[in-house]
User: Fold this.
Amino acid sequence: GSIILIGATTENPSFEINSALLSRCKVFVFKPLETEDLVILLKRAITDERGFGNTKVNIDDEFLKIVAEFANGDARMALSTLEMVILNGDTDKNGEITVTKETLEQCISKKSLLYDKNGEEHYNIISALHKSMRNSDPDAAVYWLSRMLEAGEDPLYVARRVVRFASEDIGLADPHALELAVAAYQACHFIGMPECSVNLSQAVIYMAMAPKSNACDVAYMKARKDALETISEPVPLIIRNAPTKLMKELDYGKGYKYAHDYEEKMTSMQCLPDSLANREYYEPTEQGLEIKYKSK
Assistant:
């Protein structure tokens, strides 16, 4: 009654396999091959009779290394590329094939990027972009941006992540960041790829260079925790609206202080429920415009 299931996938099992099944499986991770391993494989393919062993092939070791690097750890791609460059090589009257630099360049004119819009690498690279911007590294940010766009990622997906970043990691330290991020999203929507790549490049470089603050994100998460875990107290009467006579008779809005009537445009009126009185969620940092708000 025992069943042994053996499967293989090029995707991360965490995304592709039902969690109940995955918890009962032993996962073995096969790493991409190293360049040196692929060079050995390619040399074997040239000399083995199952490959080009019956044909005289002249190809420099330097060219084999280039093919191996182009394959990006994928043996199947390395062999397919080798086959392409050999079949397109120069053949003399004796049937001997010589692979030239020009042939090699024609066959691998564009590198196949390691990126799957639905797989693990999708999440790895968007994470790399986000963390590069957070670390104020514009060079890394624009590199990871190009990796995604050149591999065919939807520019609107990237733009949405940049909009999120503008508030999560910059916030009130530079409120203009959110405006620029939304503008970049609109630009991507209007003109599409490849032209909108420069709009996204401008946005991610700006985000990387802007002062950083996660105060808005932290404030919301603190407030969310209280909203979920504390009792749902009613809104204090003093800040309730009183559009009807009955509501006024019930003291809705009684004692309300209109902030604009005060010199500081602020009052000591309590706006939080009694159980959360004096609770502080927003704590400004020392970055950008938040210095101004902190002084208040």
Observations:
- Residues 13 and 92 are 49 Å apart (CA to CA).
- The radius of gyration is 30 Å.
- The beta strands are 57-58, 90-91, 97-98.
- The first helix runs from residue 13 to 16.
